[in-house]
Each structure stands twice: as structure tokens, then as C-alpha cells.
Write a structure and sequence with these properties.
2 domains; 44% helix; binds heme C
Length: 313
């Protein structure tokens, strides 16, 4: 009972805080429209750093890829549409989907990269105030099909590979890690294992990580931690190069087959190429799901006679 009361009071306080912050941000925006993430008065700057700026999460984030997502998009070689911002900038949901009058949201006005509010909101009831549960968070953006067909860019395939789906002619085949890891991508990409000399105890929320945490960088040292791949016959630093060599060899064969195909418009060719691109799009050799990578390439190879049959016609 007491707990419920405390929770309600806290929620109310938080709610007020959020309303307060939003009103402050909106009041500020009438004064200036200059776009700069340093300028807290812009419509889209988040201001989370005002209170969270000294925390490890913030410092890690500033050093890593997500904080460059907007610059890389705008300065990249591709045609940029406003819809690209749905994954490359955190103001999109608030300003483009909800549409706050007087604040047009597009490539010219956006200032936030994949910033804190892409993933967190003080109004959320999820653990760590996540906007959606950790399990589903990363795959909302990290997918091959970014809805940007025609822009000439193929996004990476880590999510499809990890979940073992979308390939041609192969049944669903989730990585064994999907079942073992409740938080999925977060499990490896946010694991903090910086200082593991003797115990895990000296790794605290305050430790600023070089990988893991809010750098979102996975490191192979994670594999051997937490009692997973730590025995001699299960050592990933030995097993992975073997897998990699096998997959890369298969990829070469498939690539040669695709290159020599006379007719590149057949379904067989398209299927074989899709599978090849998926494997290649995941760290170059299908790292997130080796059994699936193998199955995809084997399916491509099984189409060889069909692809060759069109030769010289
Ligand atoms: C709002 C969309 C969005 C979400 C959610 C998201 N990402 Fe990203 N992520 C991006 C974009 C865009 C980039 C490309 C950044 C760039 O330009 O280098 C990226 C880059 C990355 C990179 C490469 C970083 C680097 O330093 O080059 C990793 C690893 C990554 N994300 C992991 C994750 C993980 C793990 C999650 C879930 C906790 C996640 N992402 C959630 C959009 C997102
Ligand atoms: C791409 C998604 C993403 C972005 C961007 C992001 N976070 Fe997080 N954050 C997470 C996830 C997922 C967790 C929970 C990790 C877990 O369960 O182990 C988390 C946890 C936290 C926590 C609690 C525990 C911890 O790791 O410190 C804080 C505080 C936090 N985030 C603050 C921030 C701040 C501040 C920013 C902006 C600089 C930010 N986050 C940006 C996904 C994100
Ligand atoms: C006025 C100060 C203030 C601002 C601005 C603010 N926060 Fe917070 N935030 C807090 C306080 C206080 C807490 C609760 C104490 C704690 O856990 O650090 C908190 C908690 C959090 C947590 C939970 C951390 C955990 O351990 O689970 C996350 C995530 C978070 N805030 C994200 C954000 C994001 C994203 C923004 C910007 C959109 C933001 N905050 C803006 C004060 C603020
Ligand atoms: C569904 C989410 C999503 C959409 C929509 C999206 N992207 Fe991305 N983009 C990502 C993610 C995640 C990454 C990082 C990993 C990858 O390459 O898949 C990324 C990476 C990139 C990169 C490489 C960044 C670097 O490291 O240099 C470029 C360039 C890019 N996107 C351009 C675009 C363009 C142009 C559009 C719109 C036509 C677009 N993106 C739409 C999610 C998205
Ligand atoms: C079993 C652990 C594990 C899981 C689970 C996992 N990853 Fe990874 N991921 C890795 C490792 C290891 C690398 C390679 C890092 C390197 O090359 O140094 C990597 C690489 C990546 C990269 C390329 C990073 C870069 O710098 O270019 C992206 C993007 C990525 N993963 C996204 C994801 C997404 C999205 C998910 C969930 C669908 C996911 N990962 C699940 C371990 C994992």
C-alpha cells in the first residue's frame, strides 16, 4: 500500500517534471530558431545533459556512433529524405509524427542524432525509462529494410541475421543467443566488462566504458564472460576464425557464381544475391548467426544449375 502511494507520488512528480521541461523547452523555442546541438534553446535539443551530463551513460554516448548518426546522414553521399530522420535523429517522433505547430521538422531543422530520447522518456513505465522494452529496442532501427528503397543505400542486416529471418529459401533459424539472451542485442552490446581483473565488483554504473555501456560497441571479450564461452574447447577466439574462414570460402564461391550469371533478372539470381548480401551485410561474414549464414549460402549454391541454365540465352 505504502509502496503504491510512494510510486504514485513519484510518478506524479515525474509527470510534473516532464511537463515542466517540455513547457520550458517550448517557451524557449520562440526566442530562437538557430540549429545547433550546443544551443539548448533550439526546438530539438533535448537538454538531458543538464541533469545527466556527468553520468557515464552520457559520456559514453558522446564518444560513440549514435552521436554521429545525424552528421553522417546529412554529409553522406545519399539523397536525404525527411523519413531518414526516423532512425537518424531523435526529434522525429516528437516533432514530425506529432507535429508541433511552428516547428517544422526536416533535414534542415533537425539537430539531434540518435540521442537519449530515441531510447528513453521520463514518461515511460519501462525499466530504465526505455521507450520500448530492451528486447525490441534496437531492431526498430537496425534493419535492412529501412523503407528507403530508391535511395541507393542498403542498410546492414544484423537484426535479420540475429533473428534468422527474411532470407530466401531457408526456414526461420534464430541464433541460439535469441533464447539465451532476454535483452537480445543489449546483452552483448551494452555489457560492461572493462575492469574484470579479479571480480566484476569494481565495474559500477559510474565506470566509463571503452566498449559496452552507452558506446554500444560489442567486444569479443564479452563472449568469455559470465561463464558462457570460457572453456578451452568453447573458446570463441579459437572457434570464430574457423567459422569465418568457412563462411568466407562459401561467399567466394557464391560471388563467382553471381558474377558469371548471364541473366541477372531471374528469381533464382535474386534469391541467391539476397542471401549473399545478407551474410555480407552482417560484419562481412554473418557474424550474428553463423548457422543461418551457412544455410543462406548453401541455398544460394543450390540454385547454381538454375542460374547457369540461363547462360548464353
Ligand atoms: C533510433 C534508431 C536507433 C536505435 C533505437 C538504435 N540504433 Fe544503433 N545506430 C543507429 C544509427 C542511425 C546508426 C549509424 C550511426 C552512424 O552514422 O555511424 C547506429 C549505429 C550503431 C552501431 C555502430 C556504432 C559505431 O560506433 O559505429 C552499433 C554497434 C549500434 N548502433 C548498436 C545499437 C544497439 C545495440 C541498439 C539497441 C540498444 C541500437 N543500436 C539502437 C540507429 C539506432
Ligand atoms: C540506442 C538506445 C539508447 C540511447 C540512445 C541511450 N540509451 Fe540509456 N539505456 C539504453 C538501454 C537499452 C538501457 C538499459 C541497459 C540494460 O538494461 O542493461 C539504458 C540505460 C540507461 C541508464 C541506466 C543504467 C546505466 O547504464 O547507466 C541511464 C542513466 C541512461 N540509460 C541514460 C541515458 C542518457 C543520459 C542517454 C543520452 C546520452 C542515453 N541513455 C541514451 C538505451 C539507450
Ligand atoms: C531536471 C533534471 C532532469 C532532466 C532535464 C532529465 N532527467 Fe532523467 N532523471 C532525473 C532524475 C532526478 C532521475 C532519477 C534519479 C536517477 O535515477 O538518476 C532521472 C532518471 C532518469 C533515467 C533512469 C535511470 C535509471 O537508472 O534507470 C533515465 C534513463 C533518464 N532519466 C533519462 C533522461 C532523458 C532521456 C532526459 C532528456 C530527454 C532526461 N532524463 C532529462 C533528472 C532529469
Ligand atoms: C529503419 C531505420 C533507418 C532508416 C529509415 C534509415 N536509416 Fe540509415 N542507418 C540506420 C542504421 C541502424 C544504421 C547503422 C547500421 C547500418 O548501416 O545498418 C544506418 C546507417 C546509415 C549510413 C552509414 C553511416 C556511416 O556509418 O557512415 C548512412 C549513410 C545512412 N544510414 C543513410 C540513410 C539514408 C540516406 C536514409 C533515408 C533514405 C536512411 N539512412 C534511413 C537506420 C536507418
Ligand atoms: C552474442 C553477442 C551479440 C549479440 C546478441 C548481438 N551482437 Fe552485434 N556484434 C557482436 C560482436 C562481437 C560484433 C563485432 C564487433 C567487432 O567487430 O569488434 C558485433 C557487431 C555489430 C555491429 C557492427 C558494429 C560496427 O562497429 O560496425 C552492429 C551494427 C551490431 N552488431 C548490431 C547488433 C544488433 C542490432 C543486435 C541485435 C539484433 C546485435 N548486434 C546482437 C556481438 C553481438
Amino acid at each position: 500500500m505504502k509502496k503504491t502511494f510512494l510510486f504514485l507520488t513519484l510518478s506524479l512528480l515525474m509527470g510534473t517534471l516532464v511537463v515542466f521541461i517540455i513547457t520550458t523547452i517550448e517557451a524557449d523555442t520562440t526566442e530562437t530558431q538557430t540549429n545547433s546541438s550546443e544551443n539548448p534553446k533550439t526546438p530539438f535539443a533535448e537538454g538531458c545533459n543538464k541533469c545527466h551530463g556527468d553520468e557515464a551513460a552520457y559520456k559514453e554516448w558522446t564518444q560513440a556512433g549514435h552521436s554521429h548518426a545525424l552528421v553522417n546522414l546529412l554529409e553522406g553521399p545519399y539523397e536525404v529524405k525527411t523519413s531518414c530522420l526516423s532512425c537518424h535523429s531523435s526529434g522525429y517522433k516528437m516533432f514530425a509524427e506529432r507535429g508541433i505547430p511552428g516547428h517544422p521538422y526536416n533535414e534542415k531543422t533537425a539537430v539531434n542524432a540518435v540521442a537519449c530520447s530515441s531510447c528513453h522518456s521520463h514518461a515511460s513505465k519501462e525499466e530504465h525509462l526505455l521507450v520500448i522494452p530492451a528486447k525490441k529496442l534496437c531492431i526498430t532501427c537496425h534493419k535492412m529494410d529501412c523503407g528507403c528503397a530508391g535511395a541507393g543505400i542498403v542498410h546492414q542486416s544484423q537484426s535479420e541475421m540475429f533473428l534468422g529471418r527474411e532470407g530466401a529459401g531457408v526456414k526461420r533459424m534464430p541464433s541460439p543467443h535469441v533464447r539465451a539472451m532476454k535483452k537480445r542485442c543489449v546483452h552483448c552490446h551494452m555489457a560492461k566488462v572493462e575492469q574484470k581483473e579479479d571480480t566484476q565488483e569494481n565495474v559500477t554504473q559510474e565506470t566509463i566504458a571503452k566498449h559496452g555501456g552507452h558506446t554500444f560497441k560489442a567486444d569479443f571479450s564479452t563472449c568469455g564472460n559470465a561463464g558462457c564461452h570460457d572453456s578451452a574447447d568453447n573458446d570463441m577466439s579459437k572457434r570464430l576464425p574457423v567459422y569465418r574462414a568457412e563462411i568466407e570460402k562459401k561467399m567466394k564461391t557464391v560471388k563467382a557464381m553471381l558474377d558469371s550469371a548471364a541473366d541477372k533478372t531471374t528469381q533464382a539470381y535474386k534469391d541467391a544475391k539476397l542471401n549473399y548480401d545478407m551474410v555480407k551485410g552482417d560484419s562481412g561474414y554473418g557474424l550474428h548467426n553463423i548457422p543461418y549464414a551457412r544455410a543462406l549460402l548453401e541455398h544460394s549454391l543450390s540454385l547454381k544449375s538454375e542460374i547457369d541454365a540461363t547462360e548464353g540465352q
